[in-house]
Structure formats: C-alpha cells, structure tokens
Design brief:
The chain has 13 helices and 23 strands. With 463 residues, the protein is of the alpha/beta class. Helix 7 (211-224) links the parallel strand 9 and strand 10. Strands 1, 2, 3, 4, 5, 6 and 16 form a seven-stranded mixed sheet that branches. A seven-stranded antiparallel sheet has the order 17-18-21-20-19-22-23, sandwiched between helices. It has three domains: 6-145 and 267-329, FAD/NAD(P)-binding domain; 154-264, FAD/NAD(P)-binding domain (3-Layer(bba) Sandwich); 343-462, FAD/NAD-linked reductase, C-terminal dimerisation domain (Enolase-like, domain 1, 2-Layer Sandwich). It starts with 5 loop residues before the first strand and ends with a strand. It is 31% helix and 24% strand. The structure holds NADPH dihydro-nicotinamide-adenine-dinucleotide phosphate. NADPH dihydro-nicotinamide-adenine-dinucleotide phosphate binds at residues 149, 176-182, 184, 200-202, 207, 233, 263-266, 312-313, 343-346.
Length: 463
Amino acid sequence: MTEFDYDFFVIGGGSGGVRAARLAAGMGKRVAIAEEYRYGGTCVIRGCVPKKLFVYASHFSEEFEDAAGFGWKVGESHFDWNTLIANKDREIARLEGLYRKGLSNAGAEIFDSRAELVDQHHVRILSTNQVVSADKILIAVGGRVSDAGDLEGREHTITSNEAFHLETLPKSILIAGGGYIAVEFANIFHGLGVETTLIYRGPEILKNFDMDLRRTLHRTMEEKGIRVLCSELITHVVRSADDRLDVTTSGGKNLKVDEVMLALGRTPNTESLGLESAGVETDAVGAVIVDDYMRTNVENIYAVGDVTNRVQLTPVAIHEAMCIVDTVFRDKPTRPDHDMIATAVFSQPEIGTVGFSEDAAVQKFEELEIYSATFRPMKHTLSGRQEKMITKLVVNAADRRVVGAHILGPDAGELAQVLAIALKAGCTKDDFDRTMAVHPTAAEELVTMYQPSYRVRNGERVE
Ligand code: NDP
C-alpha cells in the first residue's frame, strides 16, 4: 500500500476548507491545509463578516433620526471612517487567529502558501516548491470577484475587496449590479452619508427574490435617497482632471462620482490550479464539476463551496465540508441537502427569505394560496419613518405546505433562519395557524394571516 505524506490535503483556507481540515484532523487524520492569502476566506476576511460590521455602522444615521420621536435629542453626530476600518480590521484579525488556532489545536499542518495540484495525489506548495503527497485532496479555493469584461475604464473601478480598505470615505459612489453585494453596499454607503447610485442591467433589483420584496425594497431605497437606475449599464468610465470619475451609461446619462464599485458576481478560482494535470474536470465557467457527494471525476479529489459554483453561500460550504468528512472519513456517505436554503440580504430594510418566490412557485405548483401583509413596523409609529414591512407566505394549495416565506423589514434575516426550520420540516399553513402569536412583534403576522390575500391558479391570479 502506498504511504502518503497526508491522509487529507485541503487547498484553500476559507469556510469550507477550514471546517473540513479541522474536523478531519480532529479525528486523528494526518491533515494539511494551504491558503495563499488569509485564513477565513472571503466570508471572514472580505465578505459577510466585515460587510455586516459595515451594515451595523451604517444603521446609526437612521437610529439617530428615529430617536427624536421617542423623546431623545441626539447631539451633533460625526462619522469617522478610519475608526470603523481600524476596528473592523482588528476584529477580522481576531477571527483569522481563531481559524488558525482551531486548525492547529486539531492537529492540522498549516501552510501559508498557494498550493497547486501536480497530479492525482500530489500538491506543490509554491512558497517552498515542495511537493507533498496526499491520499485524499479537497479543493476549497472559493471564487473571486468577476471582472467587468470589456468595460472601458474598468481600471478606475473598485470591487467589494477594495471597498473594505478605502483610505477615505467617498462623497459619492456608483455601484453596478443588482445582486446581494451591490444592494447591500448601496445601503451601507448611503447610511454612512455617501451620495449613492445603483445601476443594474435588469428591470428590477435582486433577481430570483420575491417580486413584492424586490419592488418594495427598490422603492424604499429611493425614498431614502439612493438613486436606482434599472435596465441600464455603465458603458465607460474616465478619470477626469479633478481626479473624479466621469461615467457614461447605456441610457445616455453622464454621472460624476468619486468611486465606481462593480459587484457583478463571482467566478470560481480555478485558474492555474493544476486541475488539468490532475485530470479534474471543470465546466464552462471554470467551476469544478462534482457529484452529489462532492466528488470530482477523479475518485480521491473532492471540492466544496463556491469553487463548485452551485450555491455561493458560506453556510452551504461549511455544510458540504461536514458531509465530505462523513463520507470520506466516517464511512457514512452523506450528500448535502440544498433544498430550502434560507438567505438574507442585509439591505435596509433587510430581506429574509426561504423557499419559493411566488413567481418560482407558479412554475411548480398548480394552485397557490398567497398570504401577505404589508404594514408599518410598530417602532415607526413613533419614529415617523414611513418604511413598510412585508410578511408573505406562499402555500401549495394541494397539500397546504408552506413552500415559501419572505420577509422585508427589521431582522428579516434572523426570522428567515427560524422560518427555515419550519419549512424544512414540511410545516403546513395549518401548523402556522395553530401556533400562538408572540405579541407585540412583527413576526406574529406570520401566524395570524388566516385568509389568503389571493390565489394563483395555473399561473393566473384569482381572488
Ligand atoms: P450576484 O450574483 O448576487 O449578483 C451579480 C449581479 O451582477 C447581478 O445583478 C447580475 O445581473 C449582475 N451582472 C453580472 N454580470 C454583469 C455584467 N457583465 N454587466 C452588468 N451586470 C452584471 O453576485 P454578487 O457579486 O452580488 O455576490 C456574489 C455572491 O456572494 C452571491 O452570489 C452571493 O451568493 C454571495 N453573497 C451573499 C451575501 C448574503 O448571503 N447576504 C452577501 C454578499 C454576497 P443579473 O441579475 O441580470 O444576472
């Protein structure tokens, strides 16, 4: 029998890779992990975590305004970008330290280096040019920000990577894209006092989310003062003599801004990874092709997370990593369950969603009952803010199962997490109906919408 240097070599120290390496090492396997940048990956270093800290920061401007209705007189406020960046960086460094500690405590060997496949069982550690062998290999290299193709002047633009480290807070910004990052950052920058414009090629932001939430969020963002341009693209960006940026759009608009940020999706990070040398197949966009158990076409090589370009969400990568450890090292073949994944957009107001949007459900079910409530959250009765909250349930009329739950409003992400348990468990509308409300909360609407707002039969709305 061949003796390998390691039982398991993990390439990529993000959420998926670290979890798999730590669990396998904790079982006594000989594990090594290599990361070329910083442990923690996109989520911890330049994604979900610093983004959420920015979201908190950006909320304060509205909180200060809202306080007046409750009798508070808030003094003059001033926001200091450098303090936020420094505090955020300190927290990220702490988390990175925890990731590294978790790995070393479990007994994994940590390489601070890029690693590339040499063949089916060998990996090159680039910092030392050392080649090591491993029985099983996991590709967990994630994705990178998609480039803007042939956009003229793209060298003047930034992405979310740079947005986390801008030296100064811009006075104005144009953000391109209509997905998670574009929408979240538009709200962040606006909340921090930046004049913000969002430009999106499609007819309505946040494709694939429920249309009621998309439209209402769009309108709310505009009411706050964010300019939202739909069905429009940036055609070119030029740096002007005053060091600002002149942007031309497909709609013939000329905008002058301090920064242009592109948030146009993410691409699997598989270039020059040695996949061809190892015989690992990729698809047209470079994503590693895996089966239900995340095994590639090479029997000892697996892949998890964004590099497989299936569901680009941190908890999914972590879950997949745990399944791989079960499959490979516990002799318990486990496939990840990608059904009913809850997700949140940390916009302002927030979106929390799980299951089918109404439009997607129409394609799958013959008849739907739609339960929907639009109301002003209680806090805003005194704050005076006009923002509306939406709670919406999509129910398959045939068996009364709740197949979609959508929330727009404060803490929608937190609510989506809890709703996901109910939907995953297959709860019916009757289960919701016999659940006592918690009063006074916004979430009580979810269990008190007794009559359908309308029905949809064979794609047609019927009252
Ligand atoms: P998304 O896939 O969410 O959005 C990309 C956006 O860019 C879409 O609106 C897309 O348009 C648009 N787009 C793509 N290519 C072009 C182009 N060439 N020109 C103009 N527009 C273009 O990606 P993000 O970058 O926002 O986020 C990356 C991933 O990170 C997400 O998929 C998500 O899974 C994850 N993420 C999750 C978060 C969360 O859970 N809260 C937060 C942030 C990121 P169209 O809609 O027409 O395709």
